Amino acid sequence: MKKLAEINWKEAEKELKGKTVILPLGAVEAHGYHLPLSTDNYIAQKIAEIAAEKLDALLLPLIPYGQVWSLRNFPGSISLSDQTLISMIGDLAKSLDHHGVEILIIINAHFGNKSALKKAERLIKEKYDIQILRFTHPGLKDLERKYIESSRVHPNYLHAEEIETSMMLQVNSDLVDMSKAEADSPEIPEYFSSYSVPWDQITNKAVLGDPTQATKEKGKKLIKGIAAKIVEIVNNFEKGVE
Question: What's this protein's family per the entry (predicted)?
């Protein structure tokens, strides 16, 4: 696996033109008492590295910030606006298109970035030839049914619970303090998916679910499964556009 940050411009000329590149995208936000603020970054980086190896794609440097409106009131959380994130992705795509890149794969580990990524992709399609594929844990629901013991607090959300904690244990267990892992299963109002609610109004721990059942082995299976699903989808996409 080659990383753009570690090669020179002549090597980049060969690695970019007509090729596929992978961009990991995360966030800096509160993840309970037991996980680091950059949990999403570590997870995105690891999945991107596995996918880049399998796809023989060039790995771009991680974008470490995202849209974290929901958790912005927890100390340490740093949020970009949707428009800032859209502009960043658009500018990156413009440069990569200029250098002849054929496909940009964005591997995102923060659900709050999804809306901006979709908008960015559509704007890029109108301006450039580069193809964009965006992923936020594809195949997770199937993997969850196989390996995860606890239930989600809300069907559309997960945060610092068994899934994310397991993945972080696999990626960098030195940054996980399971002695501080605490479950939080707040009552989610019925209007939660229809009305924006800062998460400090529903959880004082920045946790949605139960991290105490997390294990490194579960995390290994989740990360491996997500990466495999990305590779499968990309290979099918490449066949479809040939």
Answer: Belongs to the creatininase superfamily.
Amino acid, single-letter form, for residue 71? L
Alpha-carbon distance 151 to 66, whole Å? 26
Where residue 37 sits, what CATH number does that domain have?
3.40.50.10310
Q: Against a cut of 0.85, is the pTM above it?
A: yes
Tokens describing residue 224: 């491996």
Confidence label for 241 from pLDDT (cuts 50, 70 and 90): low
Structural domain span for residue 162: 4-234
H-helix or E-strand spanning residue 133: strand 131-135
Tokens (6 digits) for 229: 């699903």
Strands 20-25 and 103-108: parallel
Between the CA of residue 175 and those of 12, 87, 170, 238, what are the distances in Å?
A: 33, 32, 11, 37
pLDDT one-digit tens code per residue, 45-59: 999 999 999 999 999
Q: How far apart are CA 61 and CA 7, in angstroms?
A: 12
